[in-house]
Amino acid sequence: EPQAALAELERRDLERNRHYKFYTGMNYGEYHNYHLSIDSSVYGSEQTADIIQDAAERYFSEKRYQSAS
């Protein structure tokens, strides 16, 4: 039944929001809580993966993340 499915989705969303708030102190889904956000429906799976890989490589190659020698 569609109404039961919608009610279940709402229940899970509320549960997810409470869990996130409890463990992070922040609100779930707010853009400023994320380092990177991509609409994969625009880019598709392969290009989205490429974007994520490039962003991760750039992020972790910064000097602040390299170990001191």
Polypeptide structure, described:
The protein is mainly alpha-helical and 69 residues long. Helix content is 65%, strand content 0%. The chain has 2 helices and no strands. The longest helix has 23 residues. The N and C termini lie far apart (62 Å).
Range of helix content: 55-70%
Radius of gyration: 18 Å
How many strand units?
A: 0
Structural class: mainly alpha
Beta-strand residue fraction:
under 5%
Spans of at least 5 consecutive residues with low confidence: none
Give the integer mean of the pLDDT values. 90
Q: What is the N-to-C order of secondary-structure elements (H for helix, E for strand)?
A: HH
Query: Distance between termini?
Result: 62 Å
Shape: flat
Summarize the main sheet: none
Number of helices: 2
List strands and helices in order, with pairings.
Elements: H1 2-24, H2 40-61
